[in-house]
Automatic annotation (TrEMBL):
Its EC number is 2.7.1.90. The active site is at D143 (proton acceptor). Non-allosteric. Substrate binds at T141, I142, D143, M189, G190, R191, E246, Y298, L299, Q300, R301. The record marks K140 as: Important for catalytic activity. GO terms for molecular function: 6-phosphofructokinase activity; diphosphate-fructose-6-phosphate 1-phosphotransferase activity; metal ion binding. This is Pyrophosphate--fructose 6-phosphate 1-phosphotransferase. The keyword Kinase applies. It comes from Hydrogenovibrio marinus. InterPro entries: ATP_PFK, PFKA, Phosphofructokinase_dom, PKF_sf, PPi-PFK.
Length: 422
């Protein structure tokens, strides 16, 4: 007998996360003998707890087409982790109640490392209580920190946006540096990993001798060496462009810049940001030149008009592969990307244990960075370049991207209200 499906989105979004959502829906609907109604939780696991569900099966062809290129998380992702079972069993009991009521037999959680832990907890608990749920992860993250996988769906589009923006900014900086700004810092996302930072180095494919500094999170920041390199580029080229990880730390392990610390009942979350501004002020004070900083922040992960076609296909394939894994009797796995050919670039998805990948974090390897830690090697360019290839068709209305809000109708709540303690 067919069982119903529940799909949810978690963590920071990507420009292609909704392609994965569309793939889950389309693939499940093409196998009605196995899958029943396809639901989506609004706001990830929070929506499950609060019984905020929509019936994805009601989307028509035009809405599914819109979903495939829609920015943001169409079903509203969340940053919320379930408490340990021993601390808050009521959370798990509530999830089980919702799953039983809606006859959920398949749970697809679209997220990164932390989300995979949540997905596994849910599946394990429901199964232990006599309601087996097939749980499959759907990979995504712009940080590219999902280990074992060749790359993470979502990273290629963010990398394409960052490199393209830097290429254009460089032309502005070069044209003005003689009488205006000489140093510009561009801040990329990435708490512990510098993948988006080294993506800025893709502009070397267009301008090999560009005066560029790359400061990834994997290397400790040394103020004296940094300033000496900036001065060297000033002397050689007249200006310097710098791309830096928001998670840059000094040699004592302290973040160079922190925006805020959010306190919850379980732990504190450090919000990073401002490192580009900090470096910009440093150069201005030490060298007496005009500087500038750019923090693209959400822009780098939501630019649906600038998606890599390769990345979009990976995101769609991630959702499709998750449903196929469920059909093949897999449980507690995450389909990840395995490269099958370097030229032409091709890949396939293979399944790994959810908890295995959840415990790992892929950082930029040493051989992708030069010995001084402030530039990338050819090996890094060889890895990055295939991920940004191709462009997706995109339509405009009245001069703006054709982006409209989805107006989902929530299913009437049938269970007792549930209040989350954050």
């Amino acid at each position: 007998m067919s069982k119903n499906v529940l799909y949810a989105q978690a963590g920071g979004i990507t420009a292609v996360i909704n392609a994965s959502a569309a793939a889950v829906l389309e693939t499940a609907q093409s196998h009605p003998e196995r899958f029943g109604t396809v639901y989506a939780a609004i706001n990830g696991i929070v929506g499950v707890l609060e019984e905020r569900l929509v019936d994805m099966s009601q989307l028509d062809a035009s809405q599914i087409k819109q979903l495939k290129t829609h920015p943001g998380a169409a079903f509203e992702a969340c940053r919320f982790d379930l408490d340990p079972l021993e601390d808050n069993p009521e959370q798990y009991e509530r999830v089980l109640t919702v799953f039983k009521h809606y006859d959920i037999g398949y749970f697809f959680y679209n997220g990164g490392n932390g989300s995979m832990v949540t997905a596994q907890k849910v599946a394990d608990y429901c199964t232990s209580q006599g309601h087996p749920v097939t749980c499959i992860g759907v990979a995504k993250t712009i940080d590219n920190d999902l280990d074992i996988s060749h790359c993470s769906p979502g990273f290629g589009s963010a990398a394409k946006f960052i490199a393209s923006s830097l290429l254009e900014v460089n032309m502005d900086l070069k044209s003005m540096h003689n009488t205006s700004t000489k140093f510009l810092a561009f801040e990329s996302m990435g708490r512990n990993t510098g993948w988006l930072t080294i993506a800025g180095g893709l502009i070397k494919n267009a301008i090999p001798d560009i005066p560029l500094l790359i400061l990834p999170a994997e290397r400790a920041f040394n103020k004296q060496k940094f300033l000496a390199r900036v001065q060297q580029l000033f002397d050689e080229k007249g200006y310097c462009l710098c791309v830096v990880s928001e998670g840059l730390q000094d040699e004592q392990g302290n973040y160079v810049s922190i925006t805020n610390i959010e306190h919850t009942h379980l732990q504190d979350y450090t919000q990073l940001g401002g490192v580009a501004d900090a470096l910009s002020h440093m150069v201005a004070q030490e060298m007496g030149v005009k500087t500038h900083s750019i923090t693209p922040d959400y822009l780098q992960r939501s630019a649906s008009h600038f998606v890599s076609k390769t990345d979009w296909q990976m995101a769609y394939d991630a959702g499709k592969s998750a449903v196929i894994a469920a059909m093949n009797g897999e449980h507690g796995v995450l389909p990840i990307i395995e490269v099958t050919s370097e030229s032409p670039f091709s890949w396939r998805f293979t399944n790994v244990d959810l908890m295995t990948v959840a415990d790992l974090e892929k950082t930029v390897p040493d051989h992708f960075l030069t010995p001084d830690g402030m530039d990338i090697t050819q090996a890094a360019l060889d890895y990055l370049t295939p991920l940004i290839q191709g462009e997706m068709p995109f339509t405009y209305v009245n001069g703006l991207p054709d982006i409209r809000l989805f107006d989902f109708s929530l299913l009437p709540q049938q269970l007792a209200p549930y209040k989350i303690v954050k």
